[in-house]
Specification:
The complex is a heterotrimer of chains A (about 210), B (about 500) and C (about 325). By secondary structure, chain B is mostly helical. Chain B is built from 20 helices and two strands. Helices cover about 75% and strands about 0% of the residues of chain B. Chain C is about 45% helix and about 20% strand. Chain C has helices spanning about 1-25, 40-55, 70-80, 95-100, 140-145, 160-175, 185-195, 205-215, 260-275, 280-285, 300-320, and strands at about 30-35, 60-65, 85-90, 115-130, 155, 180, 200-205, 215-220, 250-255. Classes of the chains: A mainly alpha (about 210), B mainly alpha (about 500), C alpha/beta (about 325).
Chain lengths: ~210, ~500, ~325
């Protein structure tokens, strides 16, 4: 197969192709975001110069990676990876659209947390649709548990305090591993929350709220 | 022998029971916060400042600096055990250190890190005591153009951090550079790529990027397997390094110590370069460079020694000029000013007790740390036997608290989750995060220094190559070019060969 | 009507709750937001003053550093915090004087969103040059800067920093527009001033006093009416022929708008006790700080200061610094 000259026409390393295109996409987004900044000044370098240079380089490199993926045999993409790619793209698109739509008085954190949560929920729905790679369901479960628990922490810490935030957060995170053991999860969550509640606000004197503040 | 009498004076100050106790407390607290992911010495020192109000200034500084270098020791422990680098220098330790841990050699990695750090710390302290003043002059010779050139050299070296594709490593470097430009422009105050988010105005916090790209992404990857499993694949072998390990690590420790001592003197950026400069050096000098990234002990010993040597010599600008080279030192300056000492060029002559006492306590602290850390190795390794299904929620929780505590900002935690997702994506698509993180750190300094150099030269880009005005910059730029060509040639040749094979 | 009733009920509830709050105040630790990183001048002043205040109030004052966007991130949070006296902030010349001229989308109004508690301490601005700049005093410097407007280099700690805006004011008064080199913080800027890579800087006395007495840089003029005890050899701007240049980076305690009056009274009493306590005063003055008396630390004096500072900085910065 490798000695067929025509083989070069079909994609051989989907990993590199998708990865390279993602880099190009990030760079194009960056270029869009800095479009209003001056590209040069009287001394050559302005606020928009460095981001543009880096973005152009990234486009070139992304293109080379993509091209390489086309020409050269390489590893494929496993299903969790496809799941992530879709998840990332979806979360990004939803956040961007919603960001433009509701630049409201909602707190930044609340807004971003809600958006990512929305994206995650939509993905669960997506995962149930036929044709969606079935193996990626598991990866999605751990992703939702892990990212969800961290987002919950961010959202709750200043309102509920460490003591109340910790237990559900750890319990949710535990759900990322296969085979949920309720009793163990509860005991572990309580234990580690007590430990951290003593360690951070008291022993290390961090200004982290320990109890609910409303 | 003025140095000997000065050091004797310093030890007389440092070995009072009170000061020894403070040094021990500092080293212990430092180790603790270093081990906890996310939470760093800055937040801790800031919070412990009130305790020092009641101490004399020397004792207070002895304790605070103990926290600083204790955190360096502890930070490498977390990097090795669970692949969570708490600061820029341990990014490099995580690469080979965590691979060693996965192969059941966590004990050897931790022990060699402690031993290397102790040797480096001793050397750095002696250097600080003996040559502090003249070395300050070296640091003062570095202007914006020279720093910029140094960062370029660093970026070229960052290519070597990758064990996979060179072109992908370069792409990651540019991604890191791009991310480093997010935030308020230093010169004009314009918002760059912040999407209107106020918490992004000061740029992306290093810890959020590192915790997300390394820590969270690693957890996501580990959870892919259907079977719940432990972190370590293989049986844990010796707790201590073997003779072969020592033989392999010894020259790396020596080289790392030298490199770190020199780079540590340069305020802002020097210490960052030290660790992965040492990694690059070891990989280039090694007879088995293919082992790097897969658990080479020299890849732990070199950077760890460099990192700790730099941690010691980075006190030089503070103690000889009164200028804090990094954020931790800035808090120490704050601590001194609370005690009524405004640090300046005369601190050595006006406060000999403080200066020499601190120097002596640094060596004591390093000795204590190696004594604390070697027995702890067994405990840490046992920690790896905790079932992963319990280990990772704990890591997540600690990370979330740590990231929150940097700026007391929940948004940073959200950002970490986002970078976790992005980091997982990178891993799945064969991109390595280490070069990106290094470029992120260097990029901030590089752009700042580049802009300063351009402003000072009124827009003359050739200023970097002007031997008469900036000889250091010119030499560094030429070296970078040569290194870049050397790094690219083999991969170009390889590509061509592959094409011919086809 | 219904909403009116609800509103009235809410107001009554809030008032009675506030009265109950104030009686036992403070019943738990108070958080003081410092909008800058730990270790800087504002942080050090907040810690010194906070320690004394917590002794008077009988509850610890926890310093929470919320740095970012020239201090406006932390102050925004303070402005939005519950007005119960448990969250207060150490505001600053930048956050409560100049910020409105620098950040068009700022999340608070420095004059209306706060209950002023009182001034804590000011650190005067000193104009310093590299030690080998060929000028003897400020008058010569002004002439030199004018003659070498195109080649002279002014360093600052980044857009919007104290060292940036105070030099903008200086340049405006001297009618010059020299090259400004931004650094990430005061430390690296002073380092390059010591090694002679830049020519001059306007900075708070605490950042430069030890360097001036150590002879690594030259102090030309201090922007206060009288000389500072920490730098007795540095003449004032008035002595040097620029009496209009009076600048001090002041730091003051603020509570969110709507904090009950008896709570702000308690806080102000604690602050006045702090700034009139000889030991605390000595610590603040050791930093080169100018510490107010009881009258200077009153809420009225602070409200007037915030007003006059906004009038001074906002039009100037809107004209001279493009966002």
């Amino acid at each position: 197969m490798p000695n067929s000259p025509f083989r070069a026409q079909s994609a051989r390393s989907p990993q590199d192709i998708i990865g390279g295109l993602a880099l190009v996409a990030i760079a194009v987004l960056a270029l869009y975001l800095v479009k209003d900044l001056p590209a040069s000044s009287r001394v050559g370098f302005a606020s928009g110069t460095a981001p543009r240079l880096f973005a152009y380089a990234l486009i070139a490199l992304g293109a080379i990676v993509t091209l390489g993926g086309w020409l050269k045999e390489g590893p494929g993409v496993d299903r969790p990876a496809i799941g992530t790619a879709i998840l990332a793209a979806f979360a990004g698109a939803v956040s961007l659209v919603a960001f433009i739509l509701i630049k409201t008085s909602l707190g930044t954190v609340a807004m971003v947390a809600i958006l990512i949560a929305l994206a995650l929920v939509s993905l669960v729905v997506l995962a149930r649709i036929d044709g969606f790679p079935n193996d990626s369901r598991f990866a999605l479960r751990s992703m939702i548990a892990i990212l969800g628990s961290v987002l919950f922490f961010a959202f709750a810490i200043r309102i509920l305090g460490l003591a109340v935030t910790g237990i559900p957060m750890v319990m949710l995170a535990t759900a990322a591993a296969p085979g949920y053991r309720w009793k163990e999860a509860i005991a572990f969550a309580i234990g580690i929350t007590i430990f951290c509640g003593l360690l951070f606000p008291f022993a290390l004197g961090q200004p982290i709220p320990l109890w609910p503040t409303f | 022998m003025e140095l000997v009498s000065n050091l004797a004076h310093g030890f007389a100050v440092a070995v009072t029971p009170m000061n020894i106790l403070l040094c021990l407390i500092g080293a212990l607290v430092g180790t603790l916060i270093g081990v906890l992911p996310g939470i760093g010495p800055i937040a801790t020192i800031a919070m412990l400042l009130p305790i020092t109000y009641k101490l004399d200034p020397t004792g207070a500084l002895i304790m605070l600096s103990g926290i600083y270098y204790g955190a360096q020791y502890g930070g490498s422990t977390t990097a090795i055990l669970v692949n969570l680098p708490g600061e820029s220098s341990s990014v490099v330790t995580a690469i080979d250190g965590h691979q060693m841990a996965k192969q059941g050699r966590a004990g050897a990695a931790l022990a060699i890190a402690a031993i290397g750090s102790f040797i480096a710390g001793t050397f750095g302290t002696i250097l600080l005591a003996a040559l502090g003043k003249p070395l300050t002059q070296v640091a003062q010779a570095f202007g914006p153009a020279d720093y910029c050139a140094l960062m370029v050299l660093g970026l070229v070296c960052a290519v070597v951090l990758a064990s996979g594709s060179v072109i992908k490593a370069i792409a990651m470097i540019f991604l890191g550079l791009l991310l480093s430009t997010v935030g308020t422009d230093l010169e004009t105050g314009e918002q760059r790529m912040t999407l209107g988010f106020l918490p992004l105005a000061d740029g992306i916090e290093f810890v959020t990027l590192a915790m997300g790209m390394f820590g969270f992404a690693e957890i996501l990857k580990n959870l892919e397997q259907e079977e719940s499993r432990d972190l370590v694949d293989q049986k844990v072998t010796n707790l201590m390094p073997t003779k072969e390990d020592m033989k392999e690590a010894a020259p790396a420790i020596a080289r790392g110590t030298l490199l770190g001592s020199v780079l540590g003197i340069l305020p802002g950026g020097g210490a960052v370069l030290a660790a992965f400069g040492a990694y690059t050096l070891e990989k280039k000098l090694s007879k088995t460079p293919e082992k790097f990234g897969k658990g080479a002990i020299a890849g732990v010993a070199g950077p760890e020694s460099a990192n700790n040597a730099a941690a010691q010599t980075s006190f030089i600008p503070l103690l000889t000029l009164g200028i804090p080279p990094n954020a931790v030192m800035a808090i120490m300056v704050g601590a001194m000013t609370i005690h009524g000492i405004v640090p300046g060029p005369q601190i050595m002559t006006k406060q000999p007790d403080l200066f020499w006492g601190l120097v002596a306590s640094m060596w004591l602290g390093n000795a204590m740390l190696v004594i604390i850390n070697l027995p702890l190795v067994g405990l840490w390794v046992r920690l790896l036997r905790v079932p992963y299904r319990m280990l990772f929620p704990a890591i997540l929780f600690f990370c979330a608290i740590g990231v929150y505590s940097i700026n007391n900002q929940p948004f940073d935690v959200v950002l970490t989750a986002f970078f976790g997702l992005a980091g997982y994506f990178l891993l799945k698509f064969g991109f390595e995060p280490a070069p990106m993180l290094v470029a992120f750190v260097l990029g901030k300094i590089m752009e700042e220094k580049l802009r300063q150099a351009m402003l000072l030269s009124r827009g003359d880009a050739w200023t970097f190559l002007d031997f008469s005005k900036h000889p250091i910059s010119a030499v560094l730029m030429i070296v970078s070019t040569i290194l870049l060509v050397m790094a690219l040639l083999p991969s170009i040749r390889k590509k061509r060969d592959e094409v011919f094979v086809e | 009507m219904k909403t009116m009733k609800k509103f009235a009920l809410g107001a009554v509830l809030a008032l009675s709750a506030n009265a109950a709050l104030a009686q036992g105040y403070p019943a738990r630790p108070i958080t003081m937001i410092v909008p800058f990183a730990a270790g800087g001048p504002t942080d050090v002043i907040a810690r010194i003053v906070g320690e004394s205040m917590s002794k008077t109030l009988g509850q610890p004052i926890i310093i929470e550093n919320v740095a970012g966007a020239g201090g406006t991130t932390g102050i925004t949070r303070a402005a939005k915090a519950a007005a119960d006296g448990y969250t207060i902030a150490m505001g600053h010349m930048g956050t409560h004087g100049a910020a409105a001229g620098l950040y068009p989308n700022m999340g608070y109004n420095p004059q209306t969103d706060f209950a002023p508690i009182g001034l804590a301490a000011g650190t005067p601005i000193v104009i310093v040059t590299r030690k080998d700049l060929p000028v003897k005093d400020f008058k010569e410097f002004a002439a030199y800067a004018k003659a070498n407007e195109k080649t002279i280099n002014n360093a600052n700690a980044g857009n919007g920093s104290v060292s940036h805006i105070t030099c903008v004011l200086l340049h405006d008064m001297l009618k010059i527009d020299p090259n400004a080199i931004p650094y990430r913080g005061t430390g690296p800027a002073v380092a390059d001033l010591i090694s002679g890579k830049v020519d001059y800087i306007c900075d708070q006395i605490v950042s430069v006093s030890a360097q001036i007495s150590g002879g690594t840089i030259k102090g030309l003029a201090i922007a206060t009416p009288s000389r500072s005890p920490s730098l007795p050899n540095v003449p004032t701007t008035t002595e040097s022929g620029l009496p209009g240049y009076q600048v001090s980076a002041w730091n003051a305690v603020f509570a969110p708008k709507g904090t009950p009056a008896d709570i702000t009274k308690k806080l102000n009493d604690a602050l006045v006790t702090a700034v009139t306590d000889p030991a605390t005063r000595k610590k603040l003055e050791g930093l080169g700080g100018v510490v107010p008396d009881a009258k200077g630390a009153s809420p009225e004096a602070l409200a007037a200061l915030v007003k006059s500072e906004n009038e001074r900085w906002v039009p100037l910065l809107k004209a001279k610094v493009k966002p």
